[in-house]
Every structure is written in C-alpha cells, then in structure tokens.
C-alpha cells in the first residue's frame, strides 16, 4: 500500500466511511482523482487531490511579479492543489440555491474531500442519448442568470478571496498557444517579435473588459461539468462540478464556455438560442445587459478562451502524452476563427492568419 493509499484509508476511517466500497472513476486533464463511495445504502464521491502535485496558487494580494515567480497556477489564478477552494465555492453556490455538491467531510491539508454524489447524468451523455438540447441549454443559462443576479463576492470564505480574472491571467492563458501549439504546428518556436505582438494585441482586445461588471465565473462551464437532475426544481435541475478555479470575471465567460464547447459541437443556431434566452432571463429578473456591449464582450472572451484551449490541448499532447485531445482541435479552431471575425478582433485575426495559416491549424495524432 502506498503512502497516499494509507492516507486515504485513514481519512475515510476518520470520516466514518472506513468500510465503504471505493470505485475509482476515469481521470481527465487534471491531477485530481475521483472515486465513488458506497456503504450501507449511502453513496458519496471522494476527491483525491495530492498536495504538491501542482505549482502553488497565488497568495492574497500577490503582485504580478510574485505570481510569475510562483508559476502558471499563480499567474493564471488557478486553484492548483488547493481543494479548500472547491469547498468554499460549493458553499457559495449552494447558498444561492444552486446544485453544487454538499461537502460531507474534508481534510484540506492532505487533499481529501467527501462530497455529495450528483450521479452520472452529464449533459454530454444525456444529450448524446437524445435529450432535448434546447431544454438543457436553456436550463444551464438560467443557472448563469441566477449567479449573475449578484456582483462577484470579494471572498468565498473567510480565508478564500475570489481572485479577479485580470488581464495578467487572461494574457498568460493565451501565451499557451504560442508556447505549445506554434512549435508543433510550424516546426519552430515563435520569434520574440511574434510573441510580443501577440501579447500586445491581446492586451488591446481585453482593455476595458476588466472594467465591466464582475460576477462569479465557474470558468469551465460546459456539458462535461453539468449534470441533469430532472427530479429537482428550477435552477437546481443543473448539477455543478469542477468549479474550484472560480474567479471574478466577465458575465460572458461562462456563457461562451457553454456555447463553444471544445468537446461537443454546439451549432451557431443553438448558441444563439442560449444567448437570447440568457439576455431575456437577465432582463426579466431586473439585471438587463446592454446587448451590443455584451456581444462584443462575448466575442473577446470566446476568442481568448479558445486560444487558451488550443494551447492547453497541444500541451497535453506534447508534455503529457494525452494525444486524444488533438482530436478536438479542429472544433476549437472553428470556434476561434468565428470569434476572430468580430470587427473588434481584426488585428488579432490578421496575426493568426499570418503566423498560423489555416493549413497549419491541426496537429497529427501519432
């Protein structure tokens, strides 16, 4: 038995789940592992987040220089191995009537959490089985409208501030495309001038976005992280998971995460239905948005997110050997090209067309 397995066994015993059957679940693109627990007719989920498996997150009030010195998680405002952020975000979401998992027990110092099991009905799976897409996507945007009825809290708990998804973090994410995708696509590293121009163009595109209204941003709001709970009512029909990296950011961000899903194709028609329903719901609840400004913000946030995803998938393939993510790149590039067609992003579009021509935007799966 490894030290980690022994620690898990000790935690389960102390939490009253020592006799549980532990069934590991398939992993994804993170260092966290999950297992299903079953004991005496009860069920739960175990989160296993090895401490020290990632670079540290940013301490409150850290300067940009300090964040850069600490590494990518700090500069990009990611939770890293800090599973207490998940628990704090879950508590905040549940306090607003949303279906985040209840936390049954936790040992944050060792990286273990026992949480409510919301089942297996991922949006991605129930949609593949023929469930009405419009019904689910409208339900998902109603959750966002509920969250966006309030400004972002300053903190999720007494010791967990809700970090701002600032320009430093957003630009650092777009750097991933230049750092990881460009060398694999072009067979060379990006030049210093290409890197600096890319950053300058992104800073210009993002200027002003951070000055708009800030809300709680899930940050990975898509069909693999939403569960359909039809036995519940209203916004509680949508189960929420994988929100440990939550930040304060643009209301557009989670909407475009949903409607430009890297792992499943969302048609422009369905994306427009979801967007229109979101805007109507926001207006109906007394928090209307300026539609022209919001759609501009959507285009910028969508392009930023998709540029980041191109870089992340290239990194997963090259650094971690997870080449299956390369199969998603054509879809993500389709979204990104559509996003860059917005007039506000014309200069960025020109950079991508010049540096990464259309015939260089796929990587071979080997």
* Distance linking N and C termini: 35 Å
Helix content: 40-55%
The largest sheet has its strands arranged as 1-2-3-5-4
User: How is the main sheet built?
Assistant: 5 strands, antiparallel
Q: Can you give the mean pLDDT?
A: 95
Number of strands: 11
The name CATH uses for the topology of the largest domain is: Aminoglycoside 3'-phosphotransferase, Chain: A, domain 2
Question: Briefly, what CATH class of the largest domain?
Answer: Alpha Beta
Domain module tally: 2
The secondary-structure element order is HEEEHHHEEHHEEHHEEEEHHHHH
Q: What is the CATH architecture assignment of the largest domain? A: Alpha-Beta Complex
What's the tally of helices? 13
Q: In terms of structural class, how would the helical and strand content be classed?
A: alpha+beta
Which radius of gyration do the C-alpha atoms yield? 20 Å
Beta percentage is 5-15%
Uncertain segments are none
- Shape call: globular
């Amino acid at each position: 038995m490894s030290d980690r397995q022994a620690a898990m066994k000790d935690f389960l015993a102390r939490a009253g789940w020592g006799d549980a059957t532990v069934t590991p679940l398939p992993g994804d693109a993170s260092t966290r592992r999950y297992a299903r627990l079953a004991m005496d007719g009860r069920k739960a989920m175990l989160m296993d987040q090895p401490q020290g498996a990632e670079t540290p997150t940013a301490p409150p009030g850290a300067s940009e220089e300090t964040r850069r010195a600490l590494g990518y998680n700090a500069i990009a405002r990611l939770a890293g191995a800090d599973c207490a952020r998940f628990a704090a975000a879950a508590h905040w979401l549940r306090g607003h009537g949303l279906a985040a998992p209840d936390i049954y027990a936790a040992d944050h110092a060792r990286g273990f959490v026992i949480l409510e099991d919301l089942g297996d009905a991922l949006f991605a799976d129930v949609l593949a089985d023929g469930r009405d897409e419009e019904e689910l996507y409208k339900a998902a945007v109603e959750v966002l409208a509920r969250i966006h009825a309030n400004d972002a809290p300053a903190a999720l708990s007494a010791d967990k501030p809700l970090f701002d998804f600032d320009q430093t973090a957003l630009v650092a994410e777009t750097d991933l495309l230049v750092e990881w995708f460009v060398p694999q696509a072009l067979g060379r590293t990006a030049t210093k001038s290409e890197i600096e121009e890319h950053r300058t163009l992104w800073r210009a595109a993002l200027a002003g976005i951070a000055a708009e209204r800030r809300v709680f941003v899930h940050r990975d709001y898509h069909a693999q992280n939403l569960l359909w709970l039809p036995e519940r009512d209203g916004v509680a029909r949508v189960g929420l998971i994988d929100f440990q990296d939550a930040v304060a950011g643009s209301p557009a961000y989670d909407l475009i995460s949903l409607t430009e899903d890297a792992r499943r194709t969302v048609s422009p028609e369905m994306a427009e239905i979801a967007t229109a329903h979101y805007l109507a719901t926001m207006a109906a609840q007394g928090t209307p948005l300026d539609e022209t400004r919001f759609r501009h913000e959507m285009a910028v946030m969508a392009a930023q997110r998709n540029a980041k995803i191109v870089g992340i998938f290239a990194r997963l393939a090259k650094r971690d050997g997870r080449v299956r993510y390369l199969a998603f790149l054509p879809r993500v590039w389709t979204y990104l090209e559509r996003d860059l067609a917005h007039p506000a992003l014309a200069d960025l579009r020109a950079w991508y067309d010049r540096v990464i021509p259309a015939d260089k935007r796929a990587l071979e799966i080997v």
